[in-house]
Design a protein that fits this description.
Radius of gyration: 25 Å
Largest sheet: 5 strands, mixed
CATH topology of the largest domain: CbiD-like
CATH architecture of the largest domain: 2-Layer Sandwich
CATH class of the largest domain: Alpha Beta
Length: 379
């Protein structure tokens, strides 16, 4: 549910009322509009109105205005609302000049440059995505119409702190160098939005697929990456992190028609053995229940199952299993993980998985995991 008011736009996230912000793309478009007004009139507005693709009209303060008559430049500050990421509070500048016709958009200092295929913009372009580019054009067309201007504009978007900020974003993994991306599909930052993270994961998968990779190595996070680095032939940068979004990752792999092998600590992947495709604890846990029930299938007694159910961590739970019982339980878990991954993908792609423990090491693999890894590494 969304509601507006003088203090901003709010949505309900669970039971909390949380304030929305506005994207770097909205900032760039608003700054471009204010700069164009100043270029044509000689003075900057104190605030500038911008209509976001979501249909929400924003009135944003203009900061650090400057014009020499040939170009005009100002900034609008990024606001993450109640979802404050690395770019929150950053000034996004747009410098506007006159041209004979059309609207040319490029990135300056602190705006990244695309170096790999599979992203919103082709290699060589500034990392200013399609929707922000459209917003900038529409804003400048409105200014041209309002002031009877028949010429064109050039726009340079810059972020003085962008290169420093970019190391805290996905950009280095995506092959975007030299700064941040100018982003936003709705123009609005929705707090605690999983959608933005899922889109980042999809983009990273797109980059790997565009590079010709037919099998993608997927890890939920740093534990999976550290374990995968120990596998011969797997180098830094080969793995895509999917966080908790196993289901969305598998769905997108089907769209890309790429096979995947998921390498994960048991604490995450054991949930997949229960058909759970979003492994965040707020959605589902059941780790101990899944381990205990499958340990019983493997031959564990009732007392062992009770002990497992009383555990807090998966490593503690494994400690109640003998080596032989741990191996048999892991084998049953891998069969179920394979089943649910195949069920999610409908057999459209090949899927495999590797499960490990930080304490006990490798626990199990699905039957085709080794073959998929071999196709990636060539070893």
């Amino acid at each position: 549910m969304e509601e507006g008011g003088e203090q901003g736009t709010y949505i309900m996230v669970g039971t909390k009322r949380m304030r929305c912000g506005h994207t770097t793309g909205t900032c760039a478009a608003a700054a471009a509009k204010a700069s164009a007004i100043a270029l044509l009139t000689g003075s900057f507005p104190e605030n500038v109105e911008i209509l976001t693709p979501k249909g929400i009209l924003l009135k944003l303060p203009v900061e650090e205005p400057f014009t020499d008559g040939k170009t005009a430049k100002c900034a609008v500050r990024k606001d993450g609302g109640d979802d404050q990421d690395a770019t929150h509070g950053t000034l996004i500048f747009s410098e506007v000049g006159r041209t004979d016709s059309g609207i040319e958009i490029d990135g300056g200092k602190g705006v990244g440059r695309v170096t790999r295929k599979g992203l919103d913009q082709p290699p060589g372009n500034a990392a200013i995505n399609k929707t922000p580019r459209s917003m900038i054009r529409e804003a400048l067309e409105d200014v041209s119409f309002a002031y009877g201007y028949a010429g064109g504009f050039s726009v340079i978007v810059s972020v003085p702190e962008g290169e420093e900020i970019s190391v805290r974003t996905f950009n280095p993994r995506l092959g975007i160098e030299g700064g941040i991306s100018i982003l936003g599909t709705s123009g609005i930052v929705e707090p605690m939005s999983e959608r933005a993270l899922i889109e980042s994961i999809k983009k990273e998968m797109d980059v790997h697929a565009a590079a010709g990779e037919k099998v993608l190595l997927i890890v939920p996070g740093n534990y999976g990456k550290e374990f995968s680095d120990s596998i011969p032939g797997i180098d830094d940068g080969m793995c895509v992190k999917c966080s908790n979004f196993i289901g969305e990752m598998l769905d997108h792999a089907c769209e890309l028609e790429t096979d995947i092998v998921l390498i994960s600590n048991i604490g995450k992947i054991v949930k997949v053995a229960g058909g759970i495709m979003n492994t965040h604890s707020r959605n589902a846990d059941c780790r101990m229940e899944i381990i205990a029930s499958n340990a019983i299938l493997a031959g564990a007694d009732l007392e062992t199952a009770r002990n497992i159910l009383g555990c807090i961590s998966t490593d503690d739970a494994l400690g109640f299993l003998s080596p032989a019982l741990m191996e048999k339980t892991s084998g049953i878990l891998m069969e179920k993980i394979q089943f649910y991954m195949n069920h999610r993908t409908g057999g459209k792609i090949r899927t495999g998985a590797v499960m490990f423990s930080s304490v006990y090491g490798l626990l199990g693999k699905t039957e085709n995991a080794d073959q998929l890894i071999k196709e990636v590494t060539g070893i």
